[in-house]
Fold each of these.
Amino acid sequence: MNIKQKSQMLALLTLTAVSTSAWAVEEGDQAPIFDLPSIYADHPAISTASLAGKTVYVDFWASWCAPCLSSLPLYNDMYHKYKDQGLEIVAINVDNPIEDGLDFLLDTPLDFLIPADPDGEAAELFEVIGMPTSYLIEPDGTVKLVHMGFRSGDIEMIEEAIRDSLGGGN
Amino acid sequence: MKNIASRNIIALSTTALALPGIALADAPPTQSTISYKLSNYQEDDLSRSEAPLSDLERYDIDVHQFQLVSALGRNMSLHVDANYESLSGASPWFTSRGLDGEPIVNLSGASGISDRRTELSVGSRYYLENGSFGGNIGYSEEDDYRAVYFGFNTERHYNNDLTTVSAGLSHSSDKVFPTDAALFNRVEEEDKQSTSVFASVSQIINQVSSFQSALSFTEQSGFLSDPYKLRDIRPDDKTQIAWSNSYRRFFVSANAAFHVNYRYYHDDFGISSHTSDVSWHQNLGRTFQLVPQLRYYSQSAADFFTNVDDFLSPISEYQSSDYRLSAFGAVSGGISVIADMGSWKATLTAERYLANDKYSAYEVSQPSTALVKYNRISLGIDFRF
Amino acid sequence: MRAFRTTLLLAICSLMLFSCADVRAWERGYLAREEMAWAPDALESSLNDHIFFSKEASSGGNSAAGGGCGCN
């Protein structure tokens, strides 16, 4: 490949990158407002309004995303550890159909809030650019942390940020 | 039942990262996998008319493959591959003209040969935010052949992971030391070097389809002839180019995936080829999958191919009667049955391969003897933990 | 010949990119399925590569070559 061809290729790649990129929610931004039904038919809807004044950890997940599935049980432990200090975890499921998400939950029960977002409405608002992505939202609605991907060791870092946020709120 | 269903989803997800651009970033596997596959490969015997004077029995090979893929800390993965093959049978020694003037083949040795091949390769990958790079080293040994090789490759995601560009290079340093060299006047020991580079671009087209195009160049130098043939003289340098294209499409209503691959190949021995294969991966419930597959291959002949060895030509002239350098076509078909039970997965595959000069897409001026027909049956087991 | 093929490759890529949809991160469930991978069964692919390498003149594809064998 000569230099001219290389630059043509780069130009092509850049072109499409520009046309598809959008502004993702970043640290320091105000968290978007959402209102979604629960993945469980008999549970009430979950909205930003009902979570006002709490430290909220929002996580986008799907049953087909391997790192998501390894993170969820760890979030469940964290939820039990900090819920009395005011932590709320909202794990937004983007499976379509939602039955795929429900199948996973049958085997791995989770005790925090799980809204269903099969059409990606909330994911669109947050401009999620990778799975999983999670957001730590302060009681005043500012995004304190955006975390993309989930590898071993990440949970300690997330827990520290949550502890920090809960401590600061007291 | 429910348990099986949901465990199966986890199993399906473990390979999510095998396809570029699924997650935001590449990541080491979340589970480890140990795989083993046992295969039997058996070539059809030659007919008496093809080989009036020699043994008819061709290769029968058992192959054992082991693989371990595992995460190595937070950012790395480990890959270990081990293969063991045991082979018996005979291969073409020389060709001549039969009483009717048609070419005939003579297989080597009255009792055939037996050989073993052992191969070990170890690799590792490091995962960055939007890409990864990795390398491997390997060693392969037979009674009369030894190869030491290494490779390096890297990939990077662009465009919110819709596009993946990867590139790599590998090198293999081989030694051939034929058995009974003195007895049959074969070469004692010869070297061969192969260096290969590739680059590929993968693109997600929409929610259900993706496309990949790759280009590879390979340069071989050294002893490229077959030391076991009575007369086989090839150039000591070969340049190969291959252009491969792959398309994947998921059909939601059928709950099946369709694969199609096409490769164009050319080398400076004068051989060009087309390879095309298709497969249909039909899910049957959450546990089973049925995968029928079909492949067509055709190549042109090397410039110096002859279907009847000429022992009178000077040894400075290139010449080979190796059927693999002739113009021919090959059709093969097979089916796999896969049972995925969460942490365990079993795959049974049967395949039939038929090479024939009549199937050739290229002109056949000298039809070769001894084109291969074979059956292959494999049983694979994967365990995820 | 080599330059021609490279140009062709680029042409196909550009056609591809122009007709591509913006598939968002949360819409990649079908693409993530195991049977949608380029090579869903690694051992099957390496076995086939090995057999075809030893019975046909062509080799090379979307990755660099491994080690040689006395089979070709």
Note: The first helix of chain B runs from residue 2 to 14.
Amino acid sequence: MPRKLPETDVVLVGFGWTAAILAQELTQAGLRVLALERGGWRDTPTHFPPTVAPDELRFYWRKEMFQDNARETLTFRNNTGQMALPMRRWGSFLPGEGVGGAGVHWNGQTYRFLPSDFEAASHNVKRYGPLADGLTVQDYGVTYDELEPHFDRFEKLCGIGGVAGNLNGDIQASGNRFEGWRSSNYPNPPMEMTFAQHRFAEAAQALGHRPYPAPSANMSRPYVNPLGVQLGPCSYCGFCEKYGCGNYSKASPQTTILPVLMQHPNFTLKTHNEVLHITRDSTGRRATGVVHVDLEGETYEQPAQIVILCAYQLHNTRLMMLSGIGEIYDPRTGEGLLGKNYCYQVVSSVDVFYEDKFTNQFAGAGALGMMIDEFNGDNFDHAGLGFIGGGYIACWTTNARPIETHRTPEGTPEWGSAWKKAVAENFLKSTSISTHGASMAHAANHLDLDPTYKDVHGRPLMRMTYDFTANDRAMTAHLTEQARRIGERMGGREIRVKPRQGPYDSMPYQTTHNTGGTIMGSNPANSVVNRYLQSWEVPNLFVMGAGVFPQNAGYNPTGTVAALTYWAAEAIKTRYLRDPGPLVRI
Amino acid sequence: MGQHFLTAAEKHCLDALTGRLIPSDEYGPGAPEAGVTTFIDRQLAGFFGRGDRWYMQAPFRDGIPGQGYQSEHAPAQLYRRALASLDAFCRATFGGRLYAELETEAQDELLRQMEAGDLSLEGVSAETFFGLLWENTIEGFFCDPLYGGNRDMVGWKLVGFPGARYDYRDVLDHNGAPVRLEPVGLMGGPQWRVD
């Protein structure tokens, strides 16, 4: 029997970005907040100072910052005709574990989704007619206009560097003219660009595009955020994504919120405590708390007035399934919503090799890049193209970590002397253009529980059934062709096009942008949570994170995840606390 | 420094294998000279070799390539079985000679067959072994020298990677000109060698 603990007002499951934001907001509102994190404590001086952080083998290849696969992983297959097998180690995506979650080891590329992204179904149907067969694309149920102040708050919390493209409706020449209106400019200027970005910008401009600096959570100058927390200027060391920043230069829960939150008397954090399931009362309509287990195997029942799932998208979805809240989606019948609309990100690249120019890509940062948005979302006419959605095209200089990044020209052997020669000759003289495409929801792609494989506690693993859709294959082919055109104009000796083809492969790293499974929407028949991220079925249960995206847009998700969190926090503070119950009544 | 797993015979075979993957040539030292075998030995002796952070629960089945590593053997045991099987195969096929004793052309051909999945080795998938071997060879060639590979920073010097440096702000405005910096590792410069 779990040992029963004293009740708290709010229990947060997981302690990454969304939990840190909610804990800060809800303790300020006077609530007692407890966060349960299954990983350990992590901070800059103790876990990734500059003398420790730049270690490629330890942090990426031995995966020190990521979830331990031995305890829990997921199984994967491309379609229901195959047997799903466990991802015995991480590959295509890297879920975090420990305080700060994946917010510690992200790159810091921080976007707002386009206004039309939030209305992907109605917008596209209106402009292009009915969606293609099998697409289960939906509107979010919340609009860009409603989220704008919350995007703004997150950008100021993080000290995002960038150039506005639309200030209160006034289009700014040097920013992204396609972006939704913003109530104020970015709090910091953009990063300092290097040779590769200059060449990309010139080439894109020559093709009639309007390149602009990518918005960055790596500090372009010293910054003090609205909570009074200081961040230091980025030193462009080239160890961002997959690494903790030793320099207090990358926005993370640790560098923006925790120095204030950890001192708050109403806030408690318990690390190395994994939540096993959500408990409910006899009606099933009210969460009574959670059951969690510590490293010694002792279980606890933690009662709470409000339960908020703040773990990674995959874990939030699985925790709902293991708690029996809601019906699991079945692709054969179309019934059930939990696990529905699992989406990812469809990426490709074009490498550019120079003969006598040096890109010196070791001098870089996670969000150092120039980009174009002409082919993102519905920024272009899709008539006759056979797909909806799009993505951005960017030239990043993020790193030259050599185990991971050693580009070779087309036709280079995979190993041996010729490989070695090609790596030596091209290492400092190459760059890459990335396309970062949307992923549209499809009836065949979903998450459910695996019938065979179990976690360390003996519970079923999550099973992922996913492949690229016809829509997304057409989309990525279109984006890759645009990137190829730019690459050819960047003045290199040659290019190498790396399109996204064949079935989805769960092993090569692509992005940690998994979405869907606990989708938001306008009514209980089409979604797991309402527009305030509140469970339709259990109104004192809220679900944060990219699991609520009905489909994924062509941008990195963190900015939108955070804006939705602030939006939900405001609804809880201003409405739910006054009148606990459903915030949307049908 | 570091724990050991491999026998002398296994190291001999591994030197030969990694020496074909990244040979010593006119561009500089290859994998054996960079300490890749030492690196792999230490890795196999530790949590990586034991598969402590991999999901190693049964059942084990052959998957599609997109499902990744599905061997029932954690890395250390995969190496042990594959190296033994490879040498047994060579002895039987090449008149009693070990892999390390073959001509380089024959060694390369065997590597190509393993890579393509065209070689059957007793009790182990040659293709899976090749994938892990190549991955660990690159790691050992380019990792921080702290781990026993990239000895004298030969991997970093080959490509011009300056290593674990803190601050590149002064060189950002290079405009395509070379930026040559002596590499440094977490323990210091290349001359700070601890064996």
Note: Residues 8-160 of chain B form one domain.
